[in-house]
């Protein structure tokens, strides 16, 4: 028997997956309730550890739901470890779970020994205050809202599972989301950055290519790290974005055959400058035997943390603002909007959004410069010519007729016909 990364899921000597768990004590016999299985509810053998874990989670949830309030004194920590966190893991992508796991554990630790049914309004309110207060965690409003929202969802599940009658956190005011503006590089910023990179050095050449491709395509960070040379079509001048990379370290990664959303799978047109930069880099990579990942110096994929360090290094050298890795995606949107006044529909498709509304939600503030440009182009666009004499006799309000209006010359923009 070998264990897997999923608690309660093992592999037997024949390499087949199965789950085994204890659900508690039978209140009649006093014996431990154990469950073990090799097939899902439809009788299909498990083909992966994840499938076995998903079935195990379903069985646990069904058992606890059927038992109602049997485990009356369960603590919040026990509920999170045995019910909510395992269920959450089966419902989201692994990358999402890994990014949220620490948050869930910190929420758990806050109330770890508190009986679930003993949570009070005061405890929840104090937690909300602590998340936002400078004397407490001092998180930003958006991050505090994320944490508090996840806490509320955990209690929603406790209600659904019949551990609780009501969600006490719903009596506490939610933390409203604040619109986060992601810092980005302007065209001038980007020009300053690439001016500090020496292409003679192999590693700096990689840095240049990585920054250039992100800036000129707007791909998501884990879409870029997943790019293989097979995704670049030099003949049709296209970049295929069909994968995302899930990484723990340089030697423990998974290249998934899908993107963040269904609409994320897309093909992006490439400009000639980008194609030439990629062509030169591909040839240089091949000289040392690298023919898979575009962003690699040793055949292994680039870590997200490495990208952040590269950005920080060159931002400091160039004297421009430091941005996050995802800021390069926002930089691409800014570049297209401010330099080419690209339409929201085209930008939406290029960014892999499910709808133009999503694009506007994230990037509407970037079109502010376009408004000033339009105002400049409107100046003088309409020819203003007015009549030298009246064409009708006014017979309206006598009070207005009695007013002696001053005669003023027309402005330069106004001409008489």
Automatic annotation (TrEMBL):
<keyword id="KW-0229">DNA integration</keyword>
<dbReference type="Pfam" id="PF00589">
    <property type="entry name" value="Phage_integrase"/>
</dbReference>
<protein>
    <submittedName>
        <fullName>Site-specific integrase</fullName>
    </submittedName>
</protein>
<dbReference type="GO" id="GO:0015074">
    <property type="term" value="P:DNA integration"/>
</dbReference>
<dbReference type="InterPro" id="IPR050090">
    <property type="entry name" value="Tyrosine_recombinase_XerCD"/>
</dbReference>
<dbReference type="InterPro" id="IPR002104">
    <property type="entry name" value="Integrase_catalytic"/>
</dbReference>
<keyword id="KW-0238">DNA-binding</keyword>
<dbReference type="InterPro" id="IPR004107">
    <property type="entry name" value="Integrase_SAM-like_N"/>
</dbReference>
<dbReference type="InterPro" id="IPR011010">
    <property type="entry name" value="DNA_brk_join_enz"/>
</dbReference>
<feature type="domain" description="Tyr recombinase">
    <location>
        <begin position="180"/>
        <end position="379"/>
    </location>
</feature>
<dbReference type="GO" id="GO:0003677">
    <property type="term" value="F:DNA binding"/>
</dbReference>
<dbReference type="Pfam" id="PF14659">
    <property type="entry name" value="Phage_int_SAM_3"/>
</dbReference>
<keyword id="KW-0233">DNA recombination</keyword>
<dbReference type="InterPro" id="IPR010998">
    <property type="entry name" value="Integrase_recombinase_N"/>
</dbReference>
<dbReference type="GO" id="GO:0006310">
    <property type="term" value="P:DNA recombination"/>
</dbReference>
<dbReference type="InterPro" id="IPR013762">
    <property type="entry name" value="Integrase-like_cat_sf"/>
</dbReference>
<comment type="similarity">
    <text>Belongs to the 'phage' integrase family.</text>
</comment>
